User: What shape does this take?
Amino acid sequence: MKPHSKVTAPDSTALQPVSEGSTRHSGFYQVRHLRFGWSALLIFLLLGIVLEALHGFKIQAYLNVSSTTRRLMWTLAHAHGTLLALINLAFAAAIPLVPAWPSRLRDLASMCLMGGSVLLPTGFFLGGAIIHGGDPGLGVLIVPVGALLLLTSVFLTAQATLVAPKPTDATPTKKNAVTKHAST
Ligand code: HEM
Assistant: This one.
């Protein structure tokens, strides 16, 4: 096998237990949010293509003036779904940068992010599926629940990044390079 085709663990620190009492490795959350993020992006881009098709085929149940609420709700479902999918990918990327994040809080942030990412766009979609004149259907009531979950997750993540110790500057300066050389 050629040397460059060797398969190595992407980041050995991602596979280490990160805090006392931790039962799940940070790699677990990375993989979970990568899978969730890419799958959600696929679903909500498909919804974008469906909306495009509704325009293309001039579907009146979507484009009529009396269906303005449905159009708004479904556009919001598509827009929030795609953007939240990207936030899940950002969450996956951030996990290894916050190794001291207490596992209980990290787990809560992860669950809230996924819950919010499901409830928010689903609520918009259901709100547009059945409309009552200018009002969205009752499904829209799960939107604020999703918003609260998202807010919790973003608060926990922001807090974890703010209290995370700054990485030490690993760039070798002339001085420490010499010291290192001398000590070997
Ligand atoms: C990461 C990718 C995407 C993001 C973040 C995104 C975001 C958005 C946002 C914010 C809007 C609302 C614009 C407004 O009303 O002012 C929108 C509308 C729309 N998007 Fe996307 N979009 C994405 C990909 C796509 C794709 C791939 C398609 C389909 C080919 C698509 C089709 C549509 C359509 C048809 C609307 C207008 C719906 C309407 O007003 O009836 N989008 N998108």
Summary: The CA atoms of residues 106 and 156 lie 8 Å apart.
